[in-house]
């Protein structure tokens, strides 16, 4: 995985305060005390944290919001702590619908290291406000159940806990909620208490859907230490039509290039709707207010140019995967739209392109253009395929085909196994010869 270039990241100096910029970017949906947080950020530096549970082998798009918020606060001179939940990951926060399947300790430990590497890429570990990484297993593994109940559990009231939105929903469902998941908010609250004691951490960030867990920490610190600490809940990322994208919706966009390729990642952002693109630029890029407003104006006046989408796709792909991966993704995108050559793409990039297309595996003796058009579903029958070829509507690797009965030659295979067929301008499919 590439290293993120942090050197060209800056907050926008045209805002009167960091808090003003965070709100303009739409990063604050709910907070404990806006004025107190604004004052603390202005008079800082303060120490703050965000936690990431290892419930999968990679972080996804929703986590990127938190990673960039951590970075923006660090650029403002504050001290970030990235927490990976080695203990909370063994439990799992309550889901909306059903109980989580508990992963093995070995799996969770492996995922902790993968997530630690991902989080570290987005923060600076140098300078006066260098980031720090922690694992909450370090302070929970030595605690006995009796100590947990006596020292921490006694500060929580069941009546308050069951009023938390997610807990209330689960209690009213057919499945209910186990004591294990019910206790999750206590564990997360204990994180904040420990970080307050150890590092004078006074702010936690997280998604607004985690608000009950976030405030369990602020309340625990208040009860045990008599101190006021704060939380910021960021909005869930949704499309203008109200639909949500994320892991729970079954269409996760992963930050690990082995799970979502840089090409697929680039295409995801490039396909952002006009109605959503300005909001995405605010949240996911370090473009200035002036630059984003200009891109918004171009989206209104010349939407066909898709300048805002191109800027968004370039910025976020480079942020997550690096400049070289973005360059390859742009070249692949140009080839897909008939404005570049598939033969210019390296094997890994070409494989990621074919993975996103209608695809057929064919044997070496099933390799005429007519056969391939039918095998990939670009044509319903051989007669239809032959007619399309005759009309000049078929290309192979972006080169026009004139003889549909010609056999696919070894020289036609890219990297010895791939071929790209196009019918018309927009219908593209991939073939792998096995």
UniProtKB/TrEMBL annotation:
Function according to Swiss-Prot or TrEMBL: Catalyzes the attachment of tyrosine to tRNA(Tyr) in a two-step reaction: tyrosine is first activated by ATP to form Tyr-AMP and then transferred to the acceptor end of tRNA(Tyr).
Motif 'KMSKS' region, chain ranges: 244-248
Gene Ontology terms for molecular function: tyrosine-tRNA ligase activity
CDD domains for the chain: S4 (cd00165), TyrRS_core (cd00805)
NCBIfam families xref list: tyrS
Domain RNA-binding S4: 368-429
Pfam families (alphabetical): SYY_C-terminal, tRNA-synt_1b
Tagged with keyword tRNA processing: no
Residues that coordinate or bind L-tyrosine: 49, 184, 188
Residues holding ATP: 247
Catalytic class of the enzyme: ligase
Ranges that cross the membrane: none
Protein name: Tyrosine--tRNA ligase
Primary location: cytoplasm
PANTHER family referenced in this protein's UniProt entry, alphabetically: TYROSINE--TRNA LIGASE, MITOCHONDRIAL (PTHR11766:SF0), TYROSYL-TRNA SYNTHETASE (PTHR11766)
Record-linked HAMAP family: Tyr_tRNA_synth_type1 (MF_02006)
Keywords from the UniProt entry: Aminoacyl-tRNA synthetase, ATP-binding, Cytoplasm, Ligase, Nucleotide-binding, Protein biosynthesis, RNA-binding
Gene: tyrS
Family annotation (InterPro entries): aa-tRNA-synth_I_CS, aa-tRNA-synth_Ic, Rossmann-like_a/b/a_fold, S4_RNA-bd, S4_RNA-bd_sf, SYY-like_C, Tyr-tRNA-ligase, Tyr-tRNA-ligase_bac-type
């Amino acid at each position: 995985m590439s290293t993120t270039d942090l050197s060209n990241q800056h907050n926008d100096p045209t805002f009167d305060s960091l808090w003003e910029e965070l709100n303009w970017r739409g990063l604050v949906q709910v907070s404990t005390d806006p004025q107190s947080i604004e004052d603390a950020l202005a008079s800082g530096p303060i120490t703050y944290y965000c936690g990431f549970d290892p419930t999968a082998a990679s972080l996804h798009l929703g986590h990127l919001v938190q990673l960039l918020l951590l970075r923006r606060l660090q650029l403002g001179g504050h001290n970030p702590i990235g927490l990976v939940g080695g203990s909370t990951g063994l439990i799992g926060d309550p889901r909306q619908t059903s109980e989580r399947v508990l992963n093995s300790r070995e799996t969770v430990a492996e995922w902790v290291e993968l997530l630690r590497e991902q989080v570290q890429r987005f923060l600076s570990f140098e300078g006066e406000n260098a980031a720090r990484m922690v694992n909450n297993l370090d302070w929970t593994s030595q605690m006995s159940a009796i100590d947990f109940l006596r020292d921490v559990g006694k500060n929580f009231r069941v009546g308050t806990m069951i009023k938390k939105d997610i807990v209330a929903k689960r209690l009213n469902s057919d499945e209910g909620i186990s004591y294990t998941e019910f206790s999750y908010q206590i564990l997360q609250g204990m994180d904040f208490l420990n970080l307050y004691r150890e590092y004078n951490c006074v702010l936690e960030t997280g998604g607004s859907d985690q608000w009950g867990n976030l405030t369990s920490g602020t309340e625990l610190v208040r009860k045990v230490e008599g101190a006021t600490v704060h939380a910021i809940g960021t909005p869930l990322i949704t499309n203008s039509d109200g639909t949500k994208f994320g892991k729970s919706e079954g269409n996760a966009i992963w930050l690990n290039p082995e799970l979502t390729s840089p090409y697929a990642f680039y295409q995801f952002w490039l396909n952002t709707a006009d109605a959503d693109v300005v909001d995405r630029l605010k949240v996911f890029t370090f473009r200035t207010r002036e630059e984003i407003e200009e891109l918004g104006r171009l989206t209104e006046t010349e939407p066909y140019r898709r300048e805002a989408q191109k800027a968004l796709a370039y910025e976020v792909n480079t942020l997550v995967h690096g400049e070289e991966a973005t360059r390859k993704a742009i070249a692949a995108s140009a080839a897909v739209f008939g404005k570049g050559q598939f033969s210019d793409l390296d094997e890994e990039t070409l494989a990621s392109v074919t993975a996103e297309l209608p695809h057929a595996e064919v044997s070496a003796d099933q390799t005429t253009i007519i056969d391939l058009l039918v095998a990939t579903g670009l044509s319903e029958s051989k007669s239809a395929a032959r007619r399309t070829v005759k009309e000049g509507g078929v290309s192979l690797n972006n080169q026009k085909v004139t003889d549909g009965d010609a056999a696919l030659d070894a020289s036609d295979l890219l990297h010895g196994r791939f071929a790209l067929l196009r019918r018309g301008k927009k219908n593209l499919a991939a073939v792998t010869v096995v």
